[in-house]
Protein 1
Amino acid sequence: MASSASVSVSGRGGGFLLPAAVLLAVAVIHARGAPAAPCVPRVFSFGDSLADTGNFPFLYGNDSREPALRTPYGETFFRRATGRFSDGRLIVDFIADTMGLPFVRPYLSGRTAEDFASGANFAVGGAMALGPDFFRGRGVPMGDRMHLGVEMKWFHDLLDLLCPADRADCMGMMNQSLFLVGEIGGNDYNIPLLSRVPFEKIRTFTPSVVAKISSTVTELIGLGAKTLVVPGNLPIGCVPNYLMIFKSDKKEDYEPETGCLRWMNEFSKYHNRLLIDELEKLRKLHPGVSIIYADYYGAAMEIYRSPEQFGIDHPLAACCGGGGPYGVSMTARCGYGEYKVCDDPQKYGSWDGFHPSEAAYKGIAIGLLRGTYTQPSISTTISSCPQLTELGSSV
């Protein structure tokens, strides 16, 4: 969310890449000679708009108020709107591509078992970890929304399609597949934050959000999953819309090295600490399972601390939005109203004020795939993947 040397240097939060190494890592991701055997046979993904590769249009395709259903969304890579909440590819796209698989098919776009030969994506833009009843029971107004429970129901339906005679027939597939459980939970905070629920109250939701993620991981393990990647939350204090909404005149409210809101980033770190602790408990309960924490926060902070190393000039501004210092306004948003679109989205850390640009997603994905921001390292966990080995050696 990193001018002409090719050395690796260490900074806070881990090593970061200088441009020559970034270029090499990107080249590894994009290299396509003779097709290599996939590192894993399937990828299954759960989450929200940070991971949705196209379920959203099947649920809300008739809603003309949803800008993500039309250009300029998707303009950088796909040249059309795909339902992704960015100008191009997401982290899950870069992961699948590096693993030698096609982009993960949205669950709602498939009909037959053959449609899901390489996996399925259950993520939906706007999804939450917890169901709406949790929030209503705590006095937070909440309409009907997608949540992790529904996504898991879809997954069970898919297992019935893939293994109609006996669920046990799916055990081998489950053992060999890669599961991405998130990012999920961000909207459990975003929606109350935007509704001006007191922050102290929002903070009390975190143990329940983490417990829901944990129970989902446990359920997948019970079904046979052996390799799971569980992302933490991004640094929400660096989100342009929040920088606008919660603008402060107090210098101490901002991180001096990034310009991000300190208190919001501290909250992201709080969520992530609880999640890390919970995943460690799960590892002890399931010693034969690889449970990988994906440090989205750390990987993104590399971009915010050293944006020039990723070719980004405006890390805290949106490419598409209403203008202003953060590229956003209260009167226009990307694809709606009198919005503006920048000339080069690759120079921006944010696409629309809430979602990262493809350039930022790519930087985060590289940090994850080369192992720096996955614990344990994904490049050693999936040891039979030459693409990951090559990517790791580019550091």
Protein 2
Amino acid sequence: MNNYNPDGSPVHGDYVQSNFRNKHDLEKYSPPKSNDPHDRLPTLYEVLNRKTQTPVDLWSFYVYMKDSQSAIDYLDFWLDVIQHLNLCKSYVKGLKTTLTANYRQRNATNVASAIPRKTPPNNGSFVSPFGANDIGNNSRESVGSQKHKSISSSVLLDMIMTENLLEDEDNNRLSSFLKGEATLRTSDPNVNQRIEELKRHSQSIGLNMGASNSNLSVFETQPENREINRISTIKPEMLETFIKEEMDSAQLKNDSPRPENLFVTRADLRSSSRKILYTYFMEAAEKRLFIPEYIIKNIRHNLETEGRDDPEVFEEAKEYVFKAMENEAFPGFLLSNAISNITVTSHLVRLIFGFFFLFVGFWVGYTLIFLNWNPKPVRAVVVIPFFIGTYLLITSIYNIDPVLSIFGYGESKATHSGLIKLKEPFVRRLLLKRGLWVLLLTSVIAAVLSIIFALVPGKRL
């Protein structure tokens, strides 16, 4: 997983090439999940789904992929696909919520209309010159037609809810619905007639919008023993048309403005899927991913030719990117964030200053020996440079700072202060144990060196 940008890897703090500039942006983009305690190191799936806490949280992994791996485009793609999935869920959930509200309102209206009303008697004060009987017949026919349509719509709504076509939690059923593979079976001719009306209206709307995917029908019916029942394929555009008709009907009845943007539209899904296509899979894409060509061809075929926008379009690429991050990037992330609590820069600084203080310790020790400074308390001063030098060298070798571990902190590039609170329970316990071991080892080595140079007899040269 390499970064092929001509300008190379951006320095820390420059987020021009990434989708997120800080932790709060990422939290808005990906809602937090439940943080269940783990008695082990986390998996990549748990990190990506925000089931972990600092220092192995999603934002820390995001910064690691950007600064250490220079492969932020792969993680950006994975997050964009998850966002597209959430958008699809919101679309289906919006359809379901709006249809349910309309269904309840329709039932309430039917109950209210069923209450008998008293009609004032006609005292003969007015007679229509156009024929009262004709007007009454036309009115009754219109009312009867509307009532017939209303009953058919109610039955259709009840079937949609009973069959649970608008399932937004099951990803397979979600994709099946968005692909237009959801079906209803009914023998009610009135419901079938209502479905046919929605089919025609949906197709006319699609033509007026200039849809490029004209080869895809909005609705299909498959006869299966026509005298008994018929299988009808329900597609999302048909339900959008149904909702628009219901809203228009409610506007006419209530004489109120029609509400807009009540839910995510299918156009939003197409826009989201096209954005992913143009960002990661086109030849001149800004963040083109270097994945097998057959995967890219399948995605472009499904989007450009088949006109699909369901989450399954990106599933193969998503799995490929996930495995690449899991095998190539995630082990290094755990090593730097869960096993260690110092950064690469800190490692180099500690290494350099550790050798310097050890040199000072040896220089002071040999100087006191060859100057024949016999008072042992004076010669014991070498314990200071020996301890500091040993501490810095051992912490650079093990990549862990005992003092930070004891106080529950670690060095990190994910924060402006350079320090991060260890909130993941297992990681905190692990770093505390390793920190105590490093502190013990440092103390033993420093004590041995100090005792040797303090007790060796002096000899002036």
